[in-house]
Amino acid sequence: MNIERLIVRKRDGHELSKTELEYVIKGYVAGEIPDYQMAALLMAIYFQGMSWEETEALTRLMVQSGQKVDLSHLDRMPVDKHSTGGVGDKVSLVLAPLAAAAGVAVPMMSGRGLGHSGGTLDKLESIPGFRTQLSLAEFIRQVETIGVAMIGQTDEIVPADKKIYALRDRTGTVPSIPLVVASILSKKIAEGAKGLVLDVKTGRGAFFRTPDQATQLAEAIISIAKRFDLPTTAVMTAMDQPLGLAVGNWLEVREAIDALQGNGPNDLVDVTLVLTAEMLRLAGKAIRHPDDLRPLLTNGMAYAKFRELVSAQGGDVSFIENPALYPPSRYHHTVLNEREGYIHGIDALNIGLLAMELGAGRAKMGDPIDYTSGIVLHHKVGDWVGNGQPVAEVYYSKTMDPEQIEQRILAAIQIDAAPIQAPPLILKRIQ
235 and 197: one domain? Predict the structure, then answer.
């Protein structure tokens, strides 16, 4: 085997065999293939794509690069959910305890944010003391005892994906459908999930901006998942405006706490209920409508499960019980509207990029995170707002020009005199 020859073959559009892919994966994990050659191969895959057979083989080899969790002994079916990423997407923080309270086991392995898109691990780690790095033994034991665990990728599970994903982040090869498919499914299969629900986001704040791209990704994941006997369904959701009102790690945790107590923004709650209902259906539980799950948010059961989850993973529950105790950001600026009318659009991408620059995200892996920074919007598309009324609260601790921040917020919010209906949030279901 010769890595340079394989790069040239894929560059020229040829299919790589399972044996050749095995050589690549094993060699890269072992450090025998350097980053620059792996980056060249990833770029060739980005432009030339992969066949179904290549994608299946890559997924299987990535699973086999580490240990595989066996949760078949559980008395509840283990089902996970994966989002393709967006702005203000704190669904997992509400969905995982909600699904566990409804009787589904939730072994959830999540990722970190990069660029304009937030990451579940960063949000969880904004809770003082919360541990996202559990051993496999701790992970299994926690799913057994409380029905839910939310962890980051470990060196024990799919180390190939951990190393390749970090390289994809640095080389502009993240939005490659076969690489996304292999990355998502290898983690879900290795963590022991027996069912998977996809939240495939489309719109300006998503990685796959058009419905056609999002559909293509969902169908590819579902097709490959079938080859691994992993029942998978997908829900396409809109990501042109931020989900909920809060964008930023602790700010999103605080909003998730509100949702878990029955007081969350309608769009966040609606998406969460739809996705959780899909998880229950995959687990074989009878559910007529997503709203059947709403009582678990209003009666305190989902909130109690979240407190249990935070406590089990070392988090300080006092901040969950009383979010006002959390240390504030250094600066707090209220942005006032400059013209009255109806909100026709809120640019999720630019809101996400600004939140990143405030300190809530990272431009590259390894950048520090300011958990207190971010943006809280006051309105959604379709709302009327008067001249001089607040449209956003901005929190940050870096030295930045507040006037420039204000102008960027106002530029991201499109206002018109004509009334407009709120756009649909749930676009379609894909099986």
Answer: yes
Domain check: are 86 and 35 in the same one?
no
82 is catalytic: yes
32 class by beta-carbon count within 10 Å (0-12 exposed, 13-18 middle, 19+ buried): exposed
Q: Which of 299, 321, 343 is the last residue of a domain?
A: 321
Does 340 lie in the same domain as 308? no
- The one catalytic residue among 82, 90, 194, 408: 82
Q: Which one from 123, 162, 168, 408 is the annotated catalytic residue?
A: 168
Please give the tally of structural domains in the chain. 3
Q: Catalytic site residue 90?
A: no
Please report, for residues 90, 92, 294, the alpha-carbon distance to residue 297 in angstroms, rounded to integers and kept in the order given. Answer: 15, 14, 5
By residue range, what is the domain housing residue 230? 79-321
Active-site annotation holds for 240: no
pLDDT mean values, one per 10 residues, the chain (431 residues): 96 97 97 97 97 98 94 96 94 98 96 81 97 94 98 88 86 89 95 97 91 95 97 97 98 98 97 98 94 97 98 98 97 96 97 95 82 98 97 97 97 97 94 82
Whether 255 and 391 share a structural domain? no
| 112 tagged catalytic | no
Active-site position among 80, 122, 161, 347: 161
Catalytic residue among 187, 188, 194, 201: 187
Q: Which of 65, 92, 183, 186 is catalytic?
A: 183
Q: Residue 242: count other Cβ atoms within 10 Å of its Cβ.
A: 29
What is the CATH number for 150?
Answer: 3.40.1030.10
Catalytic (active site) residue 187: yes
Q: Are residues 346 and 251 in the same domain?
A: no
User: Which residues, other chains included, contact 2 with Cβ-Cβ below 8 Å and sequence gap of 6+?
Assistant: none
Helix (H) and strand (E) counts in the chain: 17, 13
